[in-house]
Amino acid sequence: MSAPTAATALPAAPLAPGRFALPQPLGTQTSYLCGHSLGAMPVAAQGALETARLQWAQSGVQAWFDGDEAWVGRADRIATQLGHLLGAQPASVRAFNHLSSHIHALLLHFGRPRGRRRKILYEAGAFPSDRFALHSVATLLGLDPDTDLIAFGGDGAPDPAPHSLVDEDALCAAIAEQGEELNLLYWSGVAYLNGQAFDIARLTQAAQAVGAHAAFDLAHAAGNVALALEDWGVDAACWCHYKYLNAGPGAVGGLYLHPRHHAAGPPLAGWWGHEPQARFGAGEDFHPRPGAAGWESGTPPILGYALLEAALAEHLRVGMPAVARAGHALCADLAGRLRAGGLTLLTPPQAHGAMLSLWAGDEAPALFARLRDSGILGDLRPPGIIRLALAPLYNGPADCDRVCAALLGG
Ligand SMILES: Cc1ncc(COP(=O)(O)O)c(C=O)c1O
């Protein structure tokens, strides 16, 4: 399963107390429940940034090559950290560019028609960037968006609301029905609006059983739910690092490619993906590095990498299984209490990570204001959804109690 479903004990407190600067936009007692949007800053970020700043100030361009902390090796170090978090070998993962550019690149590569296989099955309620990318890339690839892009949502009935839960049995049946016309299943790990966590292993198997590839947008899954991308045989995935992975606003994105795709090379070539010894060579031929590193295009953002390394270290210190279990338990606890209090939740009772989505319809702005007045910051999304994330490194049961007090009274 892509998310832990067994009941686990509620953590007594945040798992990394004192290691995050908790934003206080609503006053000194703010419960910051926006880890699904912009995660809190690790305290270590400041020292990491300062180190990079000093390297730049003191060594200039030589900082790329000199000393144990040479910038040129930074991406490899990060790949090792990421591999641990996502269940992949370092060569399969890379941090660079932004999530939306990874979506473009993955769709350009895995969406290329293969004989009769032209169709891409995707989530009707996908995030806007995914839907825009699907349509623009389909046009570039000569696909017909009307017939080759198949949006699936809810139980497959026409026009599901973007926040409808997806029936995975019906989705697997739709995959089987497309059969040998299906080229790619493109799905999310955790849905951004309702928090539904998908069984990535099952969906991958269903796609591959008909000869299609399976690629995932893990923006809301990375750092939130337990992932074993390589064991599950996932073909490709991408994610961002500024939500549950706490690497800061606009942090670089991440890309994963299964080893069976390591030799393929990227659809868009850049000098940083070229074999390092020949980067400054005069030839026109592009020789990509094997694995996800070959998909890098330009110079890595070293200041951003400093923040990313510091943040990943916080997750590794606690361990992803423990983070995932605690996030699930906190979310389950809060969801259970809110449901018992008569509120409507979109998030399914078992298949979720740390984020819960409350359905409040026209009442949503008033309910959201009540939360804010009580010092609780989540976010409000049309058409009447309040999202609250219990990021377990810095949120705990006290945050759940505050939400219950604000929404249920007493
Ligand atoms: C599910 C999902 N996909 C894609 C994106 C776009 O990411 P970026 O702006 O980093 O390219 C987001 C941003 O929040 C997202 O939530």
Helical percentage: 25-40%
Reading side by side through the largest sheet, how are the strands ordered? 4-10-9-8-7-5-6
Q: Strand portion, in percent?
A: 5-15%
Structural classification:
alpha/beta
How many DSSP helices?
Answer: 12
Give the distance, in angstroms, between the N- and C-terminal Cα atoms. 37 Å
Number of strands: 15
Mean pLDDT: 95
Features:
single chain; 410 residues; alpha/beta; Aspartate Aminotransferase, domain 1; Aspartate Aminotransferase, domain 2; 2 domains; seven-stranded mixed beta sheet; four-stranded antiparallel beta sheet; 15 strands; globular; binds pyridoxal-5'-phosphate
Task: Kindly describe this structure.
The two termini are 37 Å apart. Helix 3 runs parallel beside helix 4 (128-140), helix 6 (168-178) runs parallel beside helix 7 (200-209) and helix 10 runs parallel beside helix 12 (397-408). This protein has twelve helices and 15 strands. The strands form four sheets. It has a seven-stranded mixed β-sheet, with helices on both faces. A four-stranded antiparallel β-sheet has the order 11-12-15-14. Strands 1-3 form a two-stranded antiparallel ribbon. It is globular, with a radius of gyration of 21 Å. It folds into two domains: 20-44 and 319-408, Aspartate Aminotransferase, domain 1 (Alpha-Beta Complex), CATH 3.90.1150.10; 62-316, Type I PLP-dependent aspartate aminotransferase-like (Major domain) (Aspartate Aminotransferase, domain 2, 3-Layer(aba) Sandwich). Strand 7, helix 7 (200-209) and strand 8 (213-217) form a beta-alpha-beta unit. The chain has 410 residues and is α/β, with parallel strands linked by helices. Helices cover 35% and strands 14% of the residues. Pyridoxal-5'-phosphate (PLP) binds next to helix 3 and helix 4. Pyridoxal-5'-phosphate binds next to helix 3 and helix 4.
